[in-house]
Amino acid sequence: MAKKKAGRTCFHCKQWINEGDAHDCWSTTEAALTEGLSEDLQDAYARLRETAVEFGDQRIYASHSSIMFSRKACHFFVRPKRTYLELVIFLARTVRAPQIKKVVESSRAKRAHIVHITHRDQVEAPITDWMRQAYELQDAPATPKRKALTRVSRR
C-alpha cells in the first residue's frame, strides 16, 4: 500500500500543499486577475483603472480575487467575474440609481455600493463621479465618534 504524503488542503484555494512547501494563494497580480477576461471586460477594466489614476496618488494592488484602489484605506475595488466586473465603491451616503445592484453597510460611516460593469462605455458619469467621491472621502474631516451610552444607576 502506498504511503500518503503529509500535507493539507488550503482553506481558500482548495489546492493540496505538501508539508514543507511554501504556499501563498493570497498573492496575485492585476494581470493574473484580468488575463482570462473577454476583450470587452479587459477594456472596461483598463478604463476604470485610467479613470482612477486621474484622481491622484493612490495605491493599486491585487489582493486574492480583487484589485484594490486605496489611499489611507480602500475607497473602491474591482472583483473580476466571468461575465462582468464587480465594482464596489465606498461612499458616506446611500446612493439610489439603476446602475447600483446592491448597497451594503460596510461600517458606521461607509456604505458599499455594488455596480456591475460589462462594457467600457459604462465607465462614465455617474459611476466615475461616485468613484471620485469615494477617492475624495478620505480628505474629509473625520466624523466624531458616537459616545457610548452609559447607564445611570438609581439609588
Topology of this structure?
Elements: E1 7-9, E2 16-18, H1 30-34, H2 39-55, E3 59-63, E4 66-70, E5 74-80, E6 85-91, E7 100-105, E8 111-117, H3 127-136
Antiparallel strand pairs: 1-2, 3-4, 4-5, 5-6, 6-8, 7-8
Helix pairs in contact: 2-3
Q: What labels describe this entry?
A:
alpha+beta; two-stranded antiparallel ribbon; 3 helices; globular; 155 residues; six-stranded antiparallel beta sheet; 21% helix
Brief overview, please?
This protein is an alpha+beta fold. It is built from 3 helices and 8 strands. The protein starts with 6 loop residues before the first strand and ends in a 19-residue tail after the last helix.
Describe the structure.
The chain is of the alpha+beta class and 155 residues long. It has one domain. The protein is 21% helix and 28% strand. The protein has 3 helices and 8 strands. The strands form 2 sheets. Strands 3-4-5-6-8-7 form a 6-stranded antiparallel sheet. The chain has a two-stranded antiparallel ribbon with strand order 1-2. Helix 2 (39-55) packs across helix 3 (127-136). The longest helix has 17 residues, at 39-55. The radius of gyration is 21 Å and the shape is globular. The model has no long low-confidence stretch (mean pLDDT 86).
User: How many separate structural domains?
Assistant: 1
Q: Estimate the strand proportion.
A: 25-35%
Order of strands in the sheet with most strands: 3-4-5-6-8-7
Order of helices and strands: EEHHEEEEEEH
Biggest β-sheet strands, sense, barrel:
6 strands, antiparallel
Helix tally?
Answer: 3
Q: What proportion of the residues is helical, as a percent range?
A: 10-25%
Kindly report the average pLDDT value: 86
Are there runs of 5+ residues with pLDDT below 50, and where? none
The number of distinct β-strands equals: 8
